[in-house]
Each structure stands twice: as C-alpha cells, then as structure tokens.
Write a structure and sequence with these properties.
alpha+beta; two-stranded antiparallel sheet; 7 helices; Umud Fragment, subunit A
Length: 231
C-alpha cells in the first residue's frame, strides 16, 4: 500500500511537496504514509487519490470496495451552515476509542464535510442546554467504539464535538486523526515544543501516551459533552 502511493506519485511526475500541497496533508505525514510508518485512513486515501487524479483502489487495497466507492463519491466541497432539522446532527461515523476508526469526514475552512449517508437524524435539546453551547450549528454528535477512553467514555457513548475548536488547548478530549482514522482521545500540548501527547484514559490497557509532532495530528474538534446509558 505505501509503495503504491510513491509509485503512482512518481508516475505522475509529482514531488512529495506537490502532493502534500494538493492533498492538504502535511509533507511529513505523507512521507510517513509512503514509508509505511503511519497508517492510511480512508479519508486520507481519498484525498491522496484525488490529488493524484486516480481511483483510490490504485493506491491502496486496505479498504472494502464499497467503502472506497462511497467515500469517493463525497463532494470535494460543501459549505457549512446547511439547513438542519434539529439542533445537532447525529452522525453514524464510528469514532474509535481503541484501535482506530473509519473516517468519512474532512475539515475545511468553511466547515466539516460529511458524507450525507453518514447522517441519520438530529438531536434536539431544551433551550437551557443549548444556551451553554456557543457554536451549536457546528456541533456534531457521533458514537464511540472501543475502550481506550474508559472509564471516562464507555463503548456506545455518543460524543458531541465542537468542530470549530481545532487548537488542542486546553488539555481535554478531542476528535482527531493521527493516521488510523477518526478517534476520540485526550490531547495535551508538550510545553516549549512542537509535540503533542495523545492520551488514552485507560492507561492499564493502553499504556503511556503517544508523543507526536503537532503537524501530524489532525484535530476535528473538542468534545464538549457526551451521552451514555448507565446499565
């Protein structure tokens, strides 16, 4: 898979810098994807394929054909602020809290781009709750899978993500992608450096935090609330 990207890029006579600019993915991150040091999420596969002007299947065989076709049909641009039928759009995207998730979103300057097939309705809240959310029109709800954020977030929880909060400060829980698809993790900036810690609250199972360069972590928003059933 990693070699396919490099081979196709060279066939297109495109430098790594040009591919980074065309895809919107950092030079360092694409370099690590090409070398196999980082995983390739579905979203990044689509973005790289579009930048190379090829079908996604030409650069990877890691995803099911149906997933690639559906993701490839996503529009390249969709303005934010579309008409809502409720307060907060509910996405069926699986945001992992374990080994990674399947990413069907992109973030652009004018809002979050979501495959319409990944939305199945809206949450509605009383005015007293909505008053506490400053960016209600930019909040997305999505389910969580996995156990890496337990006991804070249990599998099956729904998190509400403010997609305008893209700077990982203060230390808190965020929706992000660092190569393995959409996940929900705790983020903490390392003082006086360009590093960031990706923390699983379930330390007993998942161990110490991962330390990455900030440019290699794509933040999709801050988790401002969550809902979970108590069994």
């Amino acid at each position: 898979m990693a070699n396919n990207i490099r081979v196709v890029r060279k066939q297109k006579h495109m430098t790594l810098e040009e591919l980074a600019e065309a895809s919107g993915i950092s030079y360092t991150f694409i370099s690590r994807i090409e070398s196999g040091k980082r995983g390739l999420s579905l979203e990044n596969a689509i973005r790289i394929a579009r930048a190379l002007n090829v079908e996604p299947s030409e650069i990877t065989n890691e995803f099911a054909h149906d997933d690639l076709e559906r993701a490839a049909e996503m529009p390249a641009h969709q303005p934010a602020g579309h008409a809502a039928e409720g307060d907060v759009e509910n996405l069926t995207i699986q945001s992992g809290a374990g080994g990674g998730g399947l990413l069907h979103v992109e973030y652009r300057d004018d809002g979050m781009l979501v495959d319409p097939a990944m939305s199945d309705g809206f949450w509605t809240f009383p005015e007293s709750i909505k008053a506490g959310w400053r960016n209600l029109e930019h909040i997305k709800a999505m389910p969580v899978t996995g156990d890496s954020m337990e006991p804070t977030l249990s599998k099956g929880s729904t998190v509400f993500v403010d997609t305008t909060h893209l700077h990982p400060s203060p230390e808190d829980i965020y929706a992000l992608d660092y190569g393995d698809g959409l996940v929900v993790k705790r983020l903490k900036l390392v003082p006086r450096s360009d590093k960031i810690l990706i923390i699983s609250d379930n330390r007993e199972r998942y161990g110490e935090p991962d330390e990455l360069l900030r440019e290699d972590v794509r933040v999709y928003g801050r988790v401002v609330a969550w809902f979970q059933w108590r069994g």
